[in-house]
Amino acid sequence: MTVTLPLQAETILKGLGQSIFARNLLYHESIGSTNVLAYELGAQGAPEGTLVLAEYQSAGKGRMGRGWLAERYLNLLFSILLRPRLPPNQIFSLTMILALATMEEIRKRCGLQPMIKWPNDIYVGRKKLGGILTEFSVKGKVIEYAVLGLGLNVNWNPGEGDGLLYPATSILAETGHRLSRAELLIDILKSLERYYGKVLQGEFETFYKRWNEHSLIIGRAVQIESGTEKIRGKALRIEPDGSLVIEDREGKERRILSGDVFWLTDG
Ligand code: BTN
Q1: pLDDT tens digit string along 20-54?
Q2: Overall pTM > 0.85
Q3: Which residue has the least CA distance to atom 15 on ligand 1?
């Protein structure tokens, strides 16, 4: 039988202690989308660190207008609100640090080696373990607020055909073990807060380098689908602003701002 215990807000608050993410926790058994609510709260002046956590989303949002599906009580679904007062071209650093915090804490807890698939997916091998959706509002020349949403497959048993565009996996499927979602969430948020401190101090180098080292596609032959365009080449690097640089088949460097990437070789 599958044990499906709800998350306990008090446990999470206790574990978070003095963290900024303990300032304003909103726990929902069921919600449309945690990102949508966090974004609305951002517009209404909610404090930095606001954490919207849900067990189920009826309209979970993914990138490029896609949805995000997750079974109740088995995965992590949350969004956080930040107010970093950075120029908008640095927004990608926030996606980077959430991906890094998530990967590193998973690695510590269960030894899995997740990697980042540009721009914001968390993969194990060729399967998708999680995804990040970053949305933000700009006022003047700075980010007014940013919402980072994470959907992470933890104790879910993915069936055949799950994960529409990419095959999906979970920590349970990869390791055969269940993890405490509350403990994992607390660890991710504490690590994220440490990285966030570095972002605010302009110490990008530490995590930018680490993020690139965890990139699944660097050095690989890839195909990027961006709108109706399909571009093939070799993935060279990811720039600090989040754009992907590839060498196309004519040997020219091309910068790609967004798209879906498929890698063609494992070497
Ligand atoms: C993607 O892979 O396309 C990004 C998926 C992001 C899903 C998370 S689940 C929590 C948060 N709320 C949402 O509606 N989306 C994000």
Answers
A1: 999 999 999 999 999 999 999 999 999 999 999 99
A2: yes
A3: 61
